[in-house]
Amino acid sequence: MARPDPSEVASPSLFLLLSELRVGAELAQHFLRGLGVRGLPRGRGEPVMVIPGFGASDINTAALRRALNQLGYEAVGWGCGRNMGMRPQVRDRLSQSLRSLCEERGQKVTLIGWSLGGVFAREMARHQPQCVRRVFTLGSPFNGHPNANNLVKLFALMNPKMRGAPDMDGFRRRIPAPPVPCTAIHTKSDGIVSWQCSVETEGAQIENVEVRGTHFGLPLNPQVLKVIAERMAADAG
């Protein structure tokens, strides 16, 4: 997929934003059926780290990690509390956690990042590719324009030092994919992040996969788990 023109990418419409209320139905379906691990390929104890989105914590990714553990992987959270944006101490802790997990397990780690967590995962892989097997991003805003989402005002409120015009040079440097296999999972009905901002420029080891559902429901989406399980099994093969 070609890189979107930043001037043509806007925040999701009010209709799409309101459609995020469908996450209630997605939650109900999850409580009734779970994520559905039956029939999915299994892992062999490979380490996985799941990074939550802005305003979320490991609690919000527990269902996805539980499903991955049921499939035979060793999935852990990021262990940094609620994600309120990147801080120096968070950056250092993530770097150390990734390095330790890789060394303890004796193999590379798969990173899964939801929303802002996917931006973090890509940068971790960019700076420590020797520790990363693959990156999965779920509705993550790493392309297009940094303001093409419906959380930009809340993010600025929680990060007063980052108010004002966005750092476009820094943002552009983060657009190219890191030097590891990357799968960008997105939904065109995303009401939080413009879906065009969540797609990679496809290449030899870079792909985009569309699923149905809401932005808030991506960690509970059975289609997301299926994509992850199939790609991870192929990596192991």
Automatic annotation (TrEMBL):
<feature type="domain" description="GPI inositol-deacylase PGAP1-like alpha/beta">
    <location>
        <begin position="103"/>
        <end position="161"/>
    </location>
</feature>
<keyword id="KW-0378">Hydrolase</keyword>
<dbReference type="InterPro" id="IPR029058">
    <property type="entry name" value="AB_hydrolase_fold"/>
</dbReference>
<dbReference type="InterPro" id="IPR012908">
    <property type="entry name" value="PGAP1-ab_dom-like"/>
</dbReference>
<protein>
    <submittedName>
        <fullName>Alpha/beta hydrolase</fullName>
    </submittedName>
</protein>
<dbReference type="Pfam" id="PF07819">
    <property type="entry name" value="PGAP1"/>
</dbReference>
<dbReference type="GO" id="GO:0016788">
    <property type="term" value="F:hydrolase activity, acting on ester bonds"/>
</dbReference>
